[in-house]
Each structure stands twice: as C-alpha cells, then as structure tokens.
Design a protein that fits this description.
Strand content: 15-25%
Radius of gyration: 25 Å
CATH topology of one domain: N-terminal domain of TfIIb
Oligomer: single chain
Helix content: 25-40%
CATH architecture of one domain: Single Sheet
Length: about 190
C-alpha cells in the first residue's frame, strides 16, 4: 500500500464521529426497524375518544425545568388524562421539548414521590411534612453550631426558577455561607 493510500484511510475525529453515527443508525434500524408491535402500537378506541365526559382543560406550566413552557392539562375526575401544548403561551409559543411532552407520564408515574419519607431501621416509612421540616431544620442548626455555617452547601437545580434561585441564595446568605452552586457543575 502506498503512502497516499495510507493517508486516505487514516481517520480524523470528524470522520470517526460520522462513521459512529452511521453505525448507530444502521444498528438501530436493524433492531427496531422491523418492530412487529413491540414498541409502537395503535391507540385504543378509548385513547382516541375526543373528550372524556366530565373533563376540564386547565392551563398550567411544565415544571421539568425553569423555562416554564405552557401545557393545557385535560383533567377528568381529578385525574390528568391528556395534555396538549398551549398554543398561545408567550414562552413556548406552541411547542415544548420531549421532556415537556412526557410531563403527564411523570405526574401519573407510580414511582413518583408524593409525600415525605424517612428511613427508620432500614425501612422507608411515610412521615408528615411538619416532622420532616423540623428534622431538617434541627440538623442544619446542629451542623452550623458544631462545625460553622460553611459546613453546609446549598445546591440549585435547572428545575428552579429565577425567583426560587433568588430565595435559595438569600437563605444561604442568612444561614451564613456562600457555599452555593448549581447541580450541573457537581
């Protein structure tokens, strides 16, 4: 093989990424291309119904991140049954990301935490909000008294709005520390 042919076969980073993506696309097509109903299915007749008999539409926002895209939740007998994009929302302007499109499933998830829990003797047990807040406040005060305010760090999140970020920062300052960061940097 001559040197010029050898140079043509060398791969740079861009070519490697292109080939990797192509390979992934081919593999995905081979695995899922002939689905045979394993992943996709037709909607049932009840899912295709235009309206539930007693449903009401409620304008709300997606809480996945702090952008606040608009969602119209269809609620029937206090159960969120369907959702659509709020076309007139000033932020999302009739669209939202895949996480927002899946918001209904996050709300209806059986693994969603709906109340405070604590581990007692190795078992998770339901507790009250007041009890949880009292224990957290007591522990924070203990840490501050024993080790000083810089022994604690407060961490923000992409789910937090600007206003929530402001009061988390204020709380940290009143606690006596500048130890605050965003979860994405940790």
């Amino acid at each position: 093989m001559s040197d010029t042919n050898l140079q043509n076969t060398k791969s740079n980073r861009r070519n490697f990424l292109k080939l990797s993506l192509l390979g992934s696309a081919i593999a995905t097509t081979q695995v899922f291309g002939n689905d045979d109903g394993r992943i996709l299915r037709e909607a049932t007749s009840s899912e295709l119904k235009e309206n539930f008999p007693n449903s009401k539409k409620i304008k709300t926002i997606c809480t996945h991140c702090s952008v606040g895209c608009g969602i119209i939740a269809e609620v029937n007998d206090d159960v969120w049954v369907r959702q659509e994009v709020a076309q007139d929302h000033p932020i999302s302007q009739g669209g939202h990301c895949c996480k927002g499109a899946d918001m209904i499933d996050r709300v209806r998830s059986t693994t969603r935490l709906r109340y405070p829990i604590e581990k007692v003797n190795g078992e998770w047990q339901k507790t009250t909000w007041d009890s949880s807040m009292d224990k957290i406040a007591k522990k924070l005060n203990e840490l501050r008294e024993k080790h000083g305010p810089d022994s604690v760090m407060f961490i923000g999140s992409a789910k937090v709005s600007n206003e929530q970020s402001y009061y988390i920062r204020k709380f940290a300052a009143f606690f006596g520390t500048n130890n605050i960061d965003h979860q994405a940097r940790i």
